Structures are given as C-alpha cells and as structure tokens.
Amino acid sequence: MKFFDVKVFVLACELKNLSAVARELSITPAATSAALKRLESELNTRLLQRSTRSLTLTQSGADFLPYARKSLENLDVGRQAISGEELRGNITLSVPSDLGRNTLLTHLIAFQEKFPGIKLTVKVSDKYADFYSQNLDASIRYGEPEDSALVCLPIIRNAKRELCASPEYLQQFGTPTKPEELINHNCLHFSGDDTLSSHWRFYKDLSTISVKVSGSHVSDNGDYLRLLALKGVGITYKTGLDVQQDIAEGRLISLLPKYKKENSPLNMVVAHRKSYDSNLVALREFLVKALSN
Q1: 165 and 229 in contact (C-beta within 8 Å)?
Q2: Is residue 220 a contact partner of residue 127, using CB atoms and an 8 Å limit?
Q3: Global confidence as pTM
Q4: Residue 228 has pLDDT above 80, yes or no
Q5: DSSP structural state of residue 44
Q6: How many Cβ atoms from other residues are within 10 Å of residue 76's Cβ?
Q7: Which of 13, 101, 163, 265 lies at a CB distance of 3.0 to 4.6 Å from 255, suitable for a disulfide?
C-alpha cells in the first residue's frame, strides 16, 4: 500500500473533488484517479462512489478513513521527531468526569500551551471507552482495562481510594470506626457493572474486609457522587486524586484511617503499541510529572 495513495484518498474525502485534489498535489486528474484505483485494488473494496460532480464515501471508505488519517498523522509526527520540529497533530482523549473537570483540565491547558501544535479533543465520561466507535487515541482511566488486548501505560502506580464524608454528615449521623458499620450509613456508590461498585473493600492485618453498601443515591458519574458527599448526603469511596483538595481544605473528612484502602492506579490506555506515538508519549510524560505529587 502506497502512502501517497492513502494521502490522495484522505484529500479526496476532504475536498470532495478529484480536480481539487490534483491541484493540491500538483498532479494530473488521471494520476489522482489512478492512485485511488490502486488503493481500492490493494484493499479489494470500493472506497468512493465517483461521478462527474461528486464523491461519496462507501461504508468501507467510511470505516477506513479514520485509520488512513491516523497513519498520515503518525508519519508526520515521525518526520517531526527526527527533524526536531515542534510536535503537531490531533489527540482524541477520553477522561473520567471528576478527574477531567477538576484535575486534568488545568494540566491539559498547560500541556496545550507547551505544545500549541497539538489539538486536543477531550471526551468526558465515566462510561467504558470504546476506541473504535469513538475514534479514540487514548483513554485516561483508573485501574486495569477490562479488555486485555488494550495497552495500559502507568501514570500514577500507587493511587488509592479514599473513604470520606462531609463534616455536616458525620455530625448528624456519626463517624464509622470500622468497615462493617458502613451498612448503617448512606453510601453513595457508582452504578457500574462490576461488584466493586457496591462492594467496598478494606485491608488490615493481612485480612480483606468486603462490605456490601447501599444508599439513597447511585450514579454513573463520579463527579455527581463527589458533589453529593460535599452537600452532606452520604459517604463516598473515591479515588484519592479526586478528593484530595476537598480533604486538604476540610470540605470532606477522610474516614477509617487505620484501614488500608483499595488501590486505584491511574493509567493511559491505548488500543495498541503502534498507536502510542510521539504526541501521546509527550502527553503521558507531561501528566506523570504534573500529577507526581
């Protein structure tokens, strides 16, 4: 497969006209048409429906287009890397709601200021990140990905969860002194599919204590649960990174200090090693340094 032919295809999708593509690349319209035919022959499928006035993507063409664009971007990034040029390109990133809004936002602004040639598209969601349907380059997530085929690159290895509640809630309902007492409290938990959502685990003296919690509010949004806790509604079990500022400033109180909490490492997840390009390397290194404290 010739990369020139891929470039012709991507340009044809953008310009919607083969004559315009020919002018852009300083080649003849016949050479443009030949490049598309070679690519379709290589892929053994029709990518574009062509008429005298228009170009229309087939389903195969629509499926192939994001990969074609990414391939050209990777080549450009590689050229920049060996020439010492400024990094350029696009990163489509998925981040969790609480972490994205309250922690990563500031760092992503600083990253883009340091690398102005990189455009960030950030999708904020606590739902499972589907790399293929969402055309993602990377996802920032707590814990290991469910799909073992994905590549997991650590940002913070030793992050842990934090059990906490507001001073107002504790004054009204009391402070639990051991995990088993949580069954008598309003526990604000995540509505995921895994047992971790409603089974909170703690560790002491080589023993694991698992408590099935319940509460008046269940949500698929981590930031919503944190805000509920701040308003005194109940107790939440959040990753420490999400609530460290609230705890430091006294808005939330850390609970059960004699018990170890669950690990919740922060990772950058990519579809495969080949997609971990210079732009993503720069982003991960930036976040590792920014979040190291």
Answers
A1: yes
A2: yes
A3: 0.65
A4: yes
A5: T
A6: 16
A7: 163
Q: Which residues contact 39 (CB under 8 A, 6 or more apart)?
A: 1, 2, 5, 6, 8, 9, 47
Strands (E), 157-234: 161-165, 187-190, 199-204, 207-212, 218-219
Let me know: does 104 contact 110? Beta carbons within 8 Å.
no
Structure tokens, 234: 């109940």
State mean pLDDT over 32-53: 89
Question: Position of tokens 């204590």?
Answer: 209
Instruction: Report CA dihedral (153, 156, 161, 167) to the nearest 10 degrees.
Output: -140
The number of residues in the chain equals: 293
CA distance 103 to 118: 20
Nearest to 149 by CA among 270, 36, 239, 247: 270
As a whole number, mean pLDDT of residues 112-139 equals: 84
Distance CA 79, CA 215 (A): 54
